[in-house]
Write a structure and sequence with these properties.
By secondary structure, the protein is mostly helical. Helix content is about 75%, strand content about 0%. It has twelve helices and no strands. The longest helix has about 40 residues. The relative contact order is 0.14.
């Protein structure tokens, strides 16, 4: 068990380092730089003098070699200092934490929609005796995955906000304003969960222990929920851990469509002016969430199936 935990923690640290390094490289390979944007009046409309440009470069460390900048920023990040926003002068960590609550609301809402929707579709599709219903439900996840998130959001706004007048189309004003963004974010995630869980359930229902339960007279519902589902949930957990970490990335589109504040809109604004410290801070925070969720899922695996830590296949 200790070896299992150490491997997972080392992998998590490596992923965080890679995310920070790749984001640094990509941002510095882009043409132009934030100082040039400021010099041309990109922030306040007033062009800067050459002396002011040099002062800005020195202030933010852009006058140093790239490797020195990388080392300094990485060292500061390891000590919890994500730098200062070039656009606003605000502390990056404070800005990220301030923008987090609205994003966390729709991310958790989308996760709840995904879990409920994916589980219901998978269980009903593998339980029903009606072939047409099973085939229809099994086709829904592929359809949902193929739909662009922004299109889904716009369609939901058109139907439930403009046509039916049931829910608000924009803003962040209470529970009702969370419904459409959460559904928009949760649909593709729920589709993936449904696909994996349905296939895993079908496999579990063919296992010997299920046949034994049937021979003992256990009902279909009990076999599905008490015998097959707990053993089929591990592959779905793997997918859920992956997509849960990516929900923050999905909020960029959702917050734009529904005009909500949050990390997504903050990221769009920062990228637009190449605010490198802000972009890297958001990327690093998203990577921490992604790694944290997947590490938690990895730690749940041995609880569901202790054979994992002993290197025994789950189907043994």
């Amino acid at each position: 068990m200790t070896r299992y935990l150490v491997r997972r923690i080392v992998t998590a640290v490596a992923v965080l380092w890679a995310a920070y390094t790749v984001s640094f490289a990509v941002l510095y390979l882009l043409p132009g730089d934030p100082v040039t944007t400021m010099a041309s009046g990109g922030l306040d409309g007033e062009p800067l003098s050459p002396a002011a440009i040099e002062a800005l470069k020195a202030r933010y460390g852009f006058d140093q070699p790239v490797l020195v900048q990388y080392g300094n920023r990485l060292w500061e990040a390891l000590h919890g200092n994500l730098g200062t926003s070039i656009q606003t002068g605000e502390d990056v960590r404070s800005a990220v934490l301030a923008a987090l609550p609205p994003t966390l609301q729709i991310a958790l809402g989308g996760l709840l929609v995904a879990v409920v929707l994916g589980t219901v579709v998978a269980v009903v599709a593998t339980y029903t005796r009606f072939r047409w219903l099973r085939q229809g439900l099994m086709a829904l996840p592929s359809l949902a995955v193929s739909l662009p998130v922004f299109w889904v959001g716009l369609m939901l706004v058109q139907i439930f906000a403009f046509d039916l007048h049931l829910l608000p189309s924009v803003g962040s004003t209470g529970f009702r304003s969370l419904v459409l963004p959460s559904v928009t974010l949760g649909l593709p995630t729920g589709a993936l969960v449904a696909q994996v869980l349905a296939k895993s359930l079908q496999t579990a229902l063919d296992e010997a222990y299920v046949q034994t339960a049937r021979a003992k007279g256990v009902g279909r519902g009990a076999i599905h929920l008490r015998h097959a589902l707990p053993n089929a949930v591990i592959p779905a957990l793997t997918v859920l851990g992956y997509v849960a970490g990516n929900l923050l990335a999905g909020t960029v589109v959702v917050e734009t469509v529904f005009t909500r504040p949050g990390l997504g809109r903050l990221m769009v604004q920062a990228v637009g002016v190449q605010d490198i410290p802000m972009v890297q801070g958001i990327v690093l925070f998203s990577a921490v969430v992604f790694v944290g969720v997947n590490l938690l899922v990895d730690l749940v695996y041995p609880v569901l199936d202790p054979r994992i830590t002993r290197g025994v296949p789950a189907t043994a």
